[in-house]
Design a protein that fits this description.
Strand order of the largest sheet: 1-5-4-3-2-6-7-8
Helix content: 40-55%
Distance between the termini: 31 Å
Strand content: 15-25%
Number of strands: 9
């Protein structure tokens, strides 16, 4: 059985309205108490497999979930059980057998969930959806993570209907798009408990402290993350979806998923990696722009606007959290500029949690999941055209790198963006083993040119917002000197590009 569903975190302010809306469509409620299993080394979680025993009312059900064809889909196998006893022999003739049999002697209970679920059934034409409003917690070794989420599962019909209903509930109630399953959160919770026990640290944490600990790190793609497929459209869809998932996950963190209240430093981390995800997604679409479907092209245009808005916030964080401390350490006269968003057009937290932006993320996900993503009809050997495009990108980068010091600041910034686009696209290629070390060189060039453009941002900012003329003069002198040194380091790294050529076999042929 293939399960496909959307998940949304329900902010505290949205809960009364959501319950009222559920009253009009509720078909029932049920208590769900589940035990999740894994090995001590998390082998199932590492393979994106969830194994549980769940008491649904009075009936125990054993379930295993395996990765599906896309980020919203899972292969789900359910078996009624007489009690809470795990029986792996049930998977003898199923896709789960190989994955589970090798760990049969090591599997043990890892965490539990306690959920009260309100249910609703919605029919739209030939499609049928189940809405589940879940309230409760996940627990491991006394640590608890609260759950308050809406799930919309496609029972039968078209995936498009699931997205249409999701849009209505998201927009009406101000929901936050959520990519983490309960099993992912439970695995993270159990790992947190094990780490604290190993360090003899207290497990007496509030759910708020647990949520803060579990969201300490911004989300980046795992390494490596190349896409192994023989289909060009699938290559595009998977790489673009991975990029979008990075955006969605960090946007949820920035918006305060699980009720967290991240400080300015953590907000900056979420924002930075959310923008990396946006850049990755834009790079994928740039590489395939000649064949993007109408929906993909429209989704990309709308996201570009928000990329700029979040860029303003990122520049603000850069100045106050990175550059200003360096200036103060170097002796810049005070008072230091206040680290407030007073000069921002939009507050990044409010922007990330706004229904308009969350709706846009859901629209982009719909475009990638429901398709079509590319229009390749009548295009002969499109993979070779894409490979040629990558070669041209690299040749342009090499040419402009040779005279980095002589080109304008705007062209230096555009060169960095070209390097980013090339690097992010190359990382998705099956040839990502990168025996030449090109990825490392591109990453170094990107970072060093970034250090130059960071100074340019700070020069512009202090020219407008310095607290006094003495501070403005000090900042200008120090930053100008720093820029010269950073530009020299960038040029040295760029020179190394002459020794490389990208491995651009797009698909395994």
């Amino acid at each position: 059985m293939l399960e496909q569903e959307l998940k949304f975190f329900v902010p505290e302010s949205a809960r009364p309205g959501l319950l009222t809306a559920f009253d009009a469509v509720r078909t029932g409620s049920i208590t769900l108490n589940a035990i999740y299993f894994d090995t001590p080394e998390r082998d199932l979680a590492r393979s994106s497999i969830a194994l549980r025993l769940r008491k649904e009312g009075e009936q125990w059900v054993q379930t295993v979930k395996l990765p599906g064809p896309d980020t919203l889909s899972r292969i789900e196998l359910n078996h009624p059980r007489p009690g809470p006893e795990l029986d792996l022999s049930l998977y003898q003739d199923t896709p789960a057998h190989t994955a589970l049999s090798r760990y049969a002697d090591q599997i043990q209970a890892r965490y539990q969930t306690r959920i009260q679920r309100e249910l609703a059934l919605i029919k739209r034409g030939q499609s049928e959806l189940e809405l589940a409003y879940d309230v409760g917690h996940i627990e491991s070794n006394g640590l608890k993570l609260l759950v308050n989420e809406l799930e919309i599962e496609l029972i039968k019909g078209e995936s498009l209907t699931m997205f249409e209903v999701g849009q209505r509930w998201l927009y009406k109630h101000g929901l936050i798009l959520e990519m983490r399953s309960k099993s992912e959160r439970g695995d993270a919770l159990a790992s947190l408990a094990n780490r604290r026990r190993a360090k003899s640290e207290s497990l007496d944490l509030t759910p708020e402290q647990v949520a803060a600990a579990l969201t300490r790190k911004a989300y980046d793609l795992p390494k490596p993350h190349f896409v192994d497929t023989e289909e060009l459209e699938q290559f595009y869809s998977l790489s673009a979806t991975m990029s979008l998932e990075q955006v969605i996950r960090n946007a949820a963190l920035l918006a305060g998923v699980d009720g967290i209240r991240p400080d300015s430093s953590r907000q900056a981390d979420y924002l930075a990696l959310m923008r990396v995800g946006l850049r990755r997604l834009r790079s994928c679409r740039k590489l395939f722009k000649m064949w993007l479907s109408a929906s993909e092209g429209y989704a990309n245009t709308r996201l570009t606007h928000y990329f700029g808005l979040f860029g303003q916030a990122r520049d603000h964080d850069l100045v106050h959290l990175e550059i200003t401390p360096l200036l103060l350490q170097a002796g810049m006269p005070g008072p230091a500029p206040e680290p407030t968003p007073a000069h921002l057009e939009h507050d990044p937290v409010q922007l990330a949690s706004a229904a308009e932006f969350q709706s846009l993320l859901l629209s982009n996900l719909q475009s990638l999941i429901c398709g079509p993503t590319l229009e390749l009809s009548g295009v002969a050997q499109p993979e070779h055209l894409v490979e040629a495009r990558i070669s041209r990108w690299f040749q342009t980068i090499q040419l402009r790198s040779q005279r980095f010091a002589q080109i304008s600041q705007d062209k230096q910034h555009r060169l960095r963006n070209r390097i980013k686009s090339l690097r992010y696209c190359l990382e998705f290629l099956p040839s990502a083993a990168d025996k030449q070390g090109l990825h490392k060189v591109l990453r170094e060039c990107q970072a060093l040119i970034g250090a130059v453009t960071d100074v340019d941002v700070a020069l512009d900012w202090y020219a407008q917002h310095a607290a006094n003329p003495e501070q403005a003069q000090f900042a200008r002198d120090w930053l100008t000197h720093a820029r010269q040194g950073r530009a020299a380091h960038a040029q040295h790294a760029l020179n190394a590009l002459d020794q490389h050529q990208p491995q651009i076999e797009l698909l395994r042929r």
